[in-house]
Specification:
binds 3-methyl-2-oxobutanoic acid; 8 strands; 2 domains; 8-stranded parallel barrel; alpha/beta; TIM Barrel
Length: 254
């Protein structure tokens, strides 16, 4: 798709019902993101989600999907600093969920883990820029790589990930010009989130773009719906009908 100049569409999903609709929509890639930690479980960060919980979400998604590529995040603590554990985490995801690839956050510091996972024939997607699993190192979710030193490091990391065999790299919340430069120096596709339009594809968190989360509105987010308000209206209509005795009517009973 990169060679043809065709942009790649990617969205997150964490459960069977949403993944079924998403797959039917024609999406290219479904990411079972560790953002499930925030979106599905209400944690403040992505750090608490476990390998078992990621496998549960991933296997629910895989059961719904017939055509899209399914990529699953390796969660925090399942791959950093120990390439043997990284391989065994990736194998568990592939074996127990049936997904097609894993995604990992970081650059040269995780290369040993990336390479070991690749030896097992498991495709790896990289993730650079704002890497939420390192939020306590950054201290903030602001745009990354705004200074020259960090931008240079990010370019080097992107090259190292490609050379190690990653099939794609997510670029999160970095300046559009830098993301475009990185896209130009890589042969594998880049997928951006808050990284401008010079990348090979885009990813958003499904619940954010559907407007289910009405308290999250960063500049990079385009909301394609306002499901929060639509759902509140539906729930309130239901409550009203139950309270008034209008539901169920004669046709809605046996
Ligand atoms: O976990 C996630 O949803 C992600 C995307 C934001 C890229 O990693």
């Amino acid at each position: 798709m990169k060679m043809k100049g065709e942009k790649i569409s990617m969205l997150t999903a964490y459960d069977y019902s949403m993944a079924k609709i998403l797959d039917a929509s024609g999406i290219d890639v479904i990411l079972v993101g560790d953002s499930a930690s925030n979106i599905m479980a209400g944690h403040e960060t992505t750090l608490p989600i476990t390998l078992e919980q990621m496998i549960y979400h991933a296997s629910s998604v895989v059961r719904a999907v017939h055509r899209a590529l399914v990529v699953v995040d390796l969660p925090f603590g399942s791959y950093q600093g120990n390439s043997k554990e990284a391989l065994s985490s990736a194998i568990r995801i592939m074996k127990e969920s049936g997904a097609h690839a894993v995604k990992m956050e970081g650059g040269k510091e995780i290369i040993e883990s990336v390479e070991r996972i690749l030896t097992a024939g498991i495709p790896v997607m990289g993730h650079l820029g704002l890497t939420p699993q390192s939020i306590y190192k950054f201290g903030t979710y602001v745009v990354r790589a705004q200074d020259e030193e960090e931008a240079l490091r990010l370019k080097e990391d992107a090259k190292i990930l490609e050379q190690s065999g990653c099939f794609s790299v997510v670029l999160e919340k970095i300046p559009a010009l830098l993301a475009s430069d990185v896209t130009g120096i890589l042969n594998v596709p880049t997928i951006g989130i808050g990284a401008g339009n010079g990348v090979d594809g885009q990813v958003l968190v499904m619940h954010d773009m559907l407007g289910i989360n009405n308290d999250f509105s960063p500049r990079f987010l385009r909301k394609y719906n306002n499901l929060h308000d639509q759902m509140i209206n539906s729930f309130q209509d239901y409550i009203k009908d139950v309270k008034s005795g209008d539901f169920p009517n004669n046709k809605e009973q046996y």
